[in-house]
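Please, structure for the following, as tokens.
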Amino acid sequence: MSRKHPYLSPMRKRRLICLPETLNYLCVCRGTLYRLIKTGRFTPPFSLGSRKRYWYLDEVIELVSARATNSSEDFIAGLVKKQLANREVITDAH
């Protein structure tokens, strides 16, 4: 029986996290994070008009879970594409 993280619930509001929190979830350094983004294995950040960059917590948790279960790189890349497509739908709705 698999248990889902409560942050992955579709009824929950999406929480934003900044770079230091994202690095803490991943347990990697800044350079590794941006290398993962460049190779398509992690979602890129977005800006809300300031110089700060943000990620959605549910996306980060989903990707960390995929990495923790030793999912294939193809699966993770597909997950990133799905998250980005979902992010565009949310952005276009406003």
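The CA atoms of residues 8 and 62 lie 8 Å apart. Helices lie at 19-26, 30-38, 57-68, 73-92.
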